[in-house]
């Protein structure tokens, strides 16, 4: 039986994600998204990935979602009026179950999960000499040795994105209606 | 913690992923669709961290680091695209965007 | 172990950077203050480096910036005798040129930018001087290229200045490509970029691959304007005259020589051979070409080319100390010549054509005196600065038995005397040949004082400089080379030198006095004049770009059109969907974003199933 914290945060995450998908108001959706991301971050903590958890909260739940909210307010799109589209929601539910069934079936069938003993603990699974170390320092060491090139590329990607955003948001006449 | 198995985390990740996917498929507001996409990405990172943790290796976790970086860049560009789209078409409802048909 | 001077080097290196940053941030509008600020910084550096030279202490200091696997990248200082000499020459000449600029740029609106540029140049060149590893050298090397670009393009609203700066930059990039490849090769062969470690490796290895030296030499070819990358230097005269004096005569072009001297242990004999021959050839040719320029600065630029050729030749002959000594002497008298030219141009209301000058000896006596002193030094009149180094190199060529090189260098010596005599005759003697020249006036003290210090003192006191002024120890390696090559009156170099001096200098004075308001050579033999004036290498490059590079580029563009645009995009990328769309009556093709998303989901599920089931 999983421990209580995991169940609590899993429920929180899924509930918030449901809110995100079902709400008609974009701001409410964003709130659900933030909550879901915090839930995921909490799960990172449960998995001993403290650094990633902090990063998730800072970058995702913080910066990225602020950007989302900002854009939502900037565009100020009207919420759809009238009755809640139950038919669409029902369709969505059907899609969800279908997909979930498909994904879980693939999971099961792949055997990737079943080879892991139920209730297996990290200690029992330890095969890799490169220990899973939680400190940010370990990240740094790996990032600047084995993953140096990807790191550089990621940095360059950020630069490209920056330039791209600037050029996209420039008020040039071709973008106008 | 010692009581949760890899399967539990993967189940959570899978459900989150499918929830996000459903949102992408049924929602019309592009902003919400985009958030659902991000949710899928978060679910994937969750699975990565879980695998990484249970295999006692850092590689998955480092990959998550890169996913977060790329996602941040991608959100910035994507939102800029949505804003540009809104400026041009005056809407962010995906139903209205059928230019690709022609 | 002598006391640690590394903090002093910190000051020397970062003072100009601070000055540049301060100018760029706060003094863009306050040009006058920026000028004095920058000049004060330059004199501060000069003082510090003189102190360092007097102390004669080696400085080693290193800090590791990053370590990738076994490769360590660092920032550090390696100050040996050569570096101290170079440091002194650069900072000292630069300080006086700063002072000169204060007067010369008096009326320029963009003085803040100009002096900021000078300071950033100082920072870059000093970085090259003190650098203790190849990577740091390369970084500062590029910074030097950048500041040179910026200063050449000071009058960026003029087309020719903009074009000249671009040309200088691009030609240098060609050389730097080889340079960075050479660095990469060093790294892969020896696993280090540190000069000291490289030296140990080179000493341990019996032979050095010629490619390393050849690639590193490419950087030198570009920066020091050696054949065939010399084309940018004469155009670079589009910049303000102090810039020409500082960068394109005294220091930057000499940096290549300095760098070659620093890595001389990496140069294989074949590379040295090439440098020696091309240097000697260029020295002779450029000297002759200087005869066919009417622009005083361009004529001086060719003279610089000739001297750079001589320095390269000394390097190639295996006497880096002599090359450095000539670099130092040349820096002093060539800076004086350029500054003198600047003073003349300033006095003649921005007239640069020598044919329109004349008779300035009476109107600008101080300028004329210093210019003539520097010219005589340039011609290697015995006991003036240029004589010690230039004749030593010519003597070295004879001594080592390289007759062809000796002949070329002798021709260069003759040509030097010829164009020097021509310049003196046209500019300072005779009658004024234009309105501007007849109303010439002497320049303010800020311009004449540097002339006097750099020109008179250092040209006349060259021998003193060569032996004693540069304090004990710092010139030890150079002294050794001097002793090895004995001076005496019957030495071939002395004979050649005196002969060319008498023939060339006096002959030119007489020859160019014969025709007024025009170039005598052009009158007597227009074909020879044109032959020398024409820029052959520019033509070769133009031909190369037109006939080779453009053809290749067009061919690649054609392939791109055919294969990528045509086959890949039009036929496959466009054709397959078109056929499928026709077959299905476009029923899947409704432009519904969500429908597309659904298809992607189905496709990926299918793919996952396929991968798992396999």
Helix content of chain C: over 70%
- Radius of gyration of chain B in whole Å, from Cα? 17 Å
Count of helical regions of chain B: 3
The top-level CATH class of one domain in chain B is Mainly Alpha
Rg of chain C, Cα atoms, Å: 28 Å
How many strands, what sense, and barrel or not for the largest sheet of chain B? Answer: none
H/E topology pattern of chain B:
HHH
Compute the number of strand runs of chain B. 0
Measured as a percent range, the helix fraction of chain B is over 70%
Number of strands of chain C: 2
What are its keywords?
heterotrimer; A: 177 residues; mainly alpha; Four Helix Bundle (Hemerythrin (Met), subunit A); 71% helix; 0% strand; C: 614 residues; two-stranded antiparallel ribbon; 3% strand
Structural notes for this entry:
The complex is a heterotrimer of chains A (177), B (102) and C (614). Chain A has helices at residues 4-22, 26-46, 50-75, 86-110, 122-125, 136-143, 148-169. Chain A is mainly α and 177 residues long. The radius of gyration of chain A is 21 Å and the shape is globular. The termini of chain A are far apart. The mean pLDDT of chain A is 79. By secondary structure, chain B is mainly α. Chain B has a domain at 28-93: Helix Hairpins (Orthogonal Bundle), CATH 1.10.287. Chain B has helices at 6-26, 30-54, 59-89. Chain C is mainly α and 614 residues long. Chain C starts with 5 loop residues before the first helix and ends with a helix. A two-stranded antiparallel ribbon of chain C has the order 1-2. Helices cover 75% and strands 3% of the residues of chain C. Chain C has helices at residues 6-26, 31-55, 81-104, 111-130, 134-152, 159-190, 195-204, 210-223, 231-235, 241-250, 252-262, 269-289, 296-316, 320-347, 360-363, 365-378, 385-399, 403-427, 435-438, 445-460, 462-469, 476-484, 492-513, 520-524, 526-533, 536-584, 593-613, and strands at residues 59-68, 71-79. Chains A and B meet through helix 1, helix 2, helix 3, helix 4 and helix 6 of A and helix 1, helix 2 and helix 3 of B.
Write the layout of secondary structure elements.
The complex is a heterotrimer of chains A (177), B (102) and C (614).
Chain A: H1 4-22, H2 26-46, H3 50-75, H4 86-110, H5 122-125, H6 136-143, H7 148-169
Helix pairs in contact in A: 1-2, 2-3
Chain B: H1 6-26, H2 30-54, H3 59-89
Chain C: H1 6-26, H2 31-55, E1 59-68, E2 71-79, H3 81-104, H4 111-130, H5 134-152, H6 159-190, H7 195-204, H8 210-223, H9 231-235, H10 241-250, H11 252-262, H12 269-289, H13 296-316, H14 320-347, H15 360-363, H16 365-378, H17 385-399, H18 403-427, H19 435-438, H20 445-460, H21 462-469, H22 476-484, H23 492-513, H24 520-524, H25 526-533, H26 536-584, H27 593-613
Antiparallel strand pairs in C: 1-2
């Amino acid at each position: 039986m999983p421990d209580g914290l995991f169940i609590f945060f899993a429920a929180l995450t899924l509930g918030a994600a449901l809110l995100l998908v079902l709400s008609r108001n974009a701001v409410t959706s964003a709130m659900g998204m933030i909550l879901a991301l915090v839930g995921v971050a909490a799960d990172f903590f449960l998995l001993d990935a403290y650094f990633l958890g902090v990063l998730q909260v800072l970058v995702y739940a913080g910066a990225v979602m602020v950007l989302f909210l900002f854009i939502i307010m900037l565009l100020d799109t009207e919420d759809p009026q009238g009755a809640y589209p139950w038919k669409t929601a029902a369709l969505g539910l059907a899609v969800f179950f279908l997909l979930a069934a498909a994904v879980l079936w693939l999971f099961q069938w792949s055997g990737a999960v079943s080879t892991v003993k139920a209730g297996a603990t990290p200690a029992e699974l330890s095969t890799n000499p490169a220990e899973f170390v939680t400190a940010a320092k370990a990240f740094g060491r790996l990032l600047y040795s084995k993953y140096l090139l990807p790191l550089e590329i990621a940095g360059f990607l950020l630069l490209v994105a920056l330039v791209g955003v600037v050029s996209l948001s420039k008020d040039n006449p071709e973008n106008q209606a | 913690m010692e009581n949760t198995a890899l399967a539990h985390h993967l189940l959570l990740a899978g459900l989150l992923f499918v929830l996000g996917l459903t949102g992408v498929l049924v929602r019309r507001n592009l902003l919400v669709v985009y958030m659902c996409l991000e949710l899928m990405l978060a679910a994937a990172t969750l699975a990565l961290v879980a695998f990484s943790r249970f295999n006692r290796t850092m590689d998955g976790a480092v990959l998550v680091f890169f996913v977060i970086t790329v996602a941040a860049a991608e959100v910035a560009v994507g939102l800029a695209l949505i804003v540009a789209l809104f400026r041009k078409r005056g809407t962010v409802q995906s139903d209205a965007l059928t230019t690709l048909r022609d | 172990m002598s006391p640690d001077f590394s903090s002093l080097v910190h000051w020397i290196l970062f003072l100009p950077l601070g000055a540049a940053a301060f100018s760029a941030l706060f003094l863009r509008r306050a040009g006058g203050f920026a000028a004095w600020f920058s000049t004060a910084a330059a004199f501060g550096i000069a003082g510090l480096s003189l102190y360092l030279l007097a102390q004669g202490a080696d400085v080693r200091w290193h800090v590791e910036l990053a370590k990738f696997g076994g490769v360590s990248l660092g920032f550090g200082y390696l100050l040996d005798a050569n570096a101290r000499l170079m440091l002194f020459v650069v900072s000292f000449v630069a300080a006086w040129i700063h002072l000169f600029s204060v007067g010369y740029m008096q009326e320029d609106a963009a003085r803040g930018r100009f002096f900021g540029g000078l300071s950033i140049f100082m920072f870059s060149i000093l970085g090259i001087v003190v650098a203790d590893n190849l990577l740091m050298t390369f970084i500062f090397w590029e910074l030097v290229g950048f500041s040179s670009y910026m200063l050449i393009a000071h009058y960026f609203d003029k087309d020719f200045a903009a074009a000249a700066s671009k040309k200088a930059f691009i030609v240098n990039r060609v050389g730097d490509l080889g340079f960075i490849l050479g660095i990469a090769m060093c790294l892969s062969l020896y696993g280090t970029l540190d000069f000291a470690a490289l030296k140990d490796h080179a000493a341990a290895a019996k032979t050095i691959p010629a490619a390393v030296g050849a690639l590193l030499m490419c950087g030198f070819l570009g920066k020091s304007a050696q054949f065939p990358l010399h084309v940018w230097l004469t155009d670079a005269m589009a910049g303000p005259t102090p810039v020409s004096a500082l960068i394109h005569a005294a220091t930057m072009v000499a940096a290549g020589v300095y760098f070659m001297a620093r890595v001389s242990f990496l140069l294989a004999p074949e590379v040295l051979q090439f440098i020696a021959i091309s240097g000697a050839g260029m020295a002779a040719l450029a000297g002759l070409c200087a005869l066919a320029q009417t622009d005083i600065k361009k004529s001086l630029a060719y003279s610089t080319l000739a001297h750079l050729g001589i320095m390269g030749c000394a390097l190639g002959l295996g006497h880096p100390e002599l090359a450095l000594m000539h670099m130092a002497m040349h820096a002093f008298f060539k800076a004086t010549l350029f500054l003198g030219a600047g003073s003349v141009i300033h006095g003649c209301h921005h007239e640069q054509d020598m044919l329109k000058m004349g008779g300035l000896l009476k109107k600008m006596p101080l300028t004329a005196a210093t210019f003539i002193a520097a010219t005589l030094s340039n011609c290697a009149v015995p006991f003036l600065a240029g004589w010690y180094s230039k004749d030593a190199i010519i003597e070295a060529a004879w001594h080592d038995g390289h007759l062809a090189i000796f002949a070329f260098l002798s021709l260069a010596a003759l040509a030097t005397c010829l164009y020097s005599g021509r310049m003196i005759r046209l500019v300072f003697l005779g009658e004024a040949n234009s309105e501007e020249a007849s109303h010439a006036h002497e320049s303010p003290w800020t311009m004449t004082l540097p002339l006097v210090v750099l020109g008179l003192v250092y040209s006349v006191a060259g021998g003193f400089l060569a032996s004693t002024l540069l304090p004990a120890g710092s010139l030890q390696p150079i002294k050794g080379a001097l002793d090895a090559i004995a001076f005496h009156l019957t030495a071939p170099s002395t004979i050649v030198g005196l002969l060319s001096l008498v023939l060339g200098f006096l002959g030119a004075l007489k020859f160019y006095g014969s025709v007024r308001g025009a170039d005598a050579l052009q009158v007597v033999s227009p074909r020879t004049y044109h032959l020398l004036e024409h820029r052959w290498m520019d033509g070769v490059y133009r031909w190369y770009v037109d006939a080779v590079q453009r053809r290749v580029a067009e061919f690649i563009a054609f392939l791109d059109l055919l294969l990528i645009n045509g086959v890949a995009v039009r036929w496959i990328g466009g054709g397959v969907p078109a056929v499928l769309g026709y077959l299905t009556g476009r029923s899947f093709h409704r432009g519904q974003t969500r429908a597309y998303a659904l298809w992607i989901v189905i496709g990926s599920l299918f793919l996952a199933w396929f991968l798992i089931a396999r």
